[in-house]
Amino acid sequence: MKEKILSYIEKNSRIDLHELAVLVDADEASLMNTLEEMENDNIICGYHTLINWEKTDLEKVTALIEVKVTPQRGQGFDKIAERLYNYPEVKSVYLISGGYDLLVTLEEKSLKEISNFVSFKLSTLDSLAFPSKGLMANFSVAGIFPLSKEERDKEFFFDKLEAFVTVAIPLGKKFSLALDIKAGGSVSESLNSLPEMKMPYAFSQKDRLFFSNVASINPLATNMACSAASLYFFPQTSLSMAGIKCMTGFSAAQGFFWDSREDMQSGKGVWRVSLDAGIQFKKNSALLLRVGGGFVQEKVSPFVSLDLGAFRM
Predict the structure, then answer these.
(1) Same domain assignment for residues 12 and 75
(2) What's the sign of the alpha-carbon dihedral 7, 8, 10, 11?
(3) Does residue 51 fall inside a structural domain?
(4) Distance of alpha carbon 30 from alpha carbon 35, whole angstroms
(5) Residue 147 and residue 82 in one domain
(6) By C-alpha distance, which of 81, 180, 90 is closest to 138?
(7) Is the same domain home to 190 and 87?
(8) Are 88 and 221 found together in one domain?
(9) Cα first-last separation, the chain
(10) What is the pLDDT of residue 289?
(11) Has residue 46 been placed in a domain?
């Protein structure tokens, strides 16, 4: 009888006691005693509410993410699964067979936040500021559609694609090499005919990870391709005992920006070389000082920059 009771209350935990007694062919008194017995034995651990979120004002996006991991010796996948499940965005973690190892169920407010979670929390980078090992990749595709009739009459539509990859390679205990590649653009290039939309959606040379020597957000471009290489040295200091990571190093970056495929060869180029020093307070936050020179707006000039943030967000 217990199995019958459990099967019914699993589907509807608020089922009327009399109705349940009829369904399992038992009297209400014995049914109540059986329920109390299963609660005391922790067979019934609680009663949950099934909510139709679509009828509320709260917007949610659910995603199923397949993850491939390397099991730890003596712990298998348990430690990694526990770490994933501790994130509030994660609703469940399943061990699966095939090409991947874990199936993770996520709930967020938007696809953008799902993408950020996969990029920054499921990445193997040990730091978003000064990584010493690991890999992170982020790919996004967006289509911007009209909302009003006036915009539809103007054929207001364009697409935007963006890809960002970081690889950090350890070179001994105190050195690492970080490589960053970022590219983006529009297949239709319709953004070129909508100058009023360039400010929120086009690409700027003012990217603090690549070009901290650029001070102005203009000029804006529909397409871009950038790359950077950073050689980090992590000295042992008294701050290391407090979990603060110090870094000195050298970095260089180069990028090209253009509006259409026709002017790709004559796209605006920019580059930077610098000596770097920084202090990392948390995994995703650091203070970075750069001193060097670069080419921007058709001239070479020296620069000094000071930034606070994660740099790879």
Answers:
(1) no
(2) positive
(3) no
(4) 9
(5) no
(6) 180
(7) no
(8) no
(9) 55
(10) 94
(11) no
Tell me which of 85 and 56 has the higher pLDDT: 85
The predicted structure's pLDDT at residue 278: 92
Total domains in the fold of the chain: 3
pTM over 0.70: no
3-state secondary structure of 191: helix
Strands 61-67 and 220-221: unpaired
For residue 82, CA distances in Å to 74, 102, 128 come to 15, 12, 22
Q: Are residues 222 and 145 in the same domain?
A: yes
**pLDDT of the residue at 154:** 56
33 and 67 within one domain: no
Q: pLDDT-derived band of residue 87, with 50, 70 and 90 as boundaries? A: confident
Give the domain extent around 131: 124-309
Name the residue among 111, 303, 113, 112 with its Cα closest to residue 208. 303
Token pair of 154 as six digits = 């103007």
For 103, the token pair is 């199936």
Rounded Cα–Cα distance for residues 231 and 245 (Å): 15
